[in-house]
Amino acid sequence: MSNINEYNWDKLLKIKTSGRDDTKADQHCYPYEPTPYCVLERLANSGYIKKNNCVIDYGCGKGRVDFFLSYQTRCKSVGIEYDERIYKDACNNQDTAVSGSRTEFLLQKAETYSLEKQEDRMFFFNPFSIEILRNVIARIIQSYYAEPRQMLLFFYYPSDEYIAYLMTVDELTFVDEIECMDLFEGNNKRERIMIFEIGNE
């Protein structure tokens, strides 16, 4: 992964999202660590997210996923963040970002968020524990039954625990995987985006 690429994208998007932050991390809410831009490039080029989609970024941190995908695909995006200090960083980025008008940020716990009917794409980079994930998935499924639509869930760098749970959810169907292992050294098999679907087009 090139630090130059990370810097250049931040500069192009007019945001500041680099660096890890584990100030408020605990056993349930994991540290802030931005998704590498090279991974987001693969996701944006996959065709799964388009202009008429709306992405929910669970544990959005400083908003990198939201700003990048909104810029590259012209989708709308909503970032959910529970840490007030990091949420403020996302809002500050929104003021300067080239794609800020298509993004929104909410200071809220992920497991309490009720989806709107137009929200149909969800992104996760291991933001929280399996206990919280169960509650979040339950709300996503609840939203699907209230407003049936094709919904895609993207899991970057998924843990074995996440995968084992997701494979047991009846409403979820594994549909594809975006390989990212070649982008990094070490042949880490977790370097991928697993895609699950609820409903059909």
Automatic annotation (TrEMBL):
InterPro entries: SAM-dependent_MTases_sf
Keywords, in A-Z order: Methyltransferase, Transferase
SUPFAM superfamilies for this protein: S-adenosyl-L-methionine-dependent methyltransferases
GO annotation, biological process: methylation
Gene Ontology molecular function, alphabetical: methyltransferase activity
Protein name, as recorded: SAM-dependent methyltransferase
Organism: Ruminococcus hominis
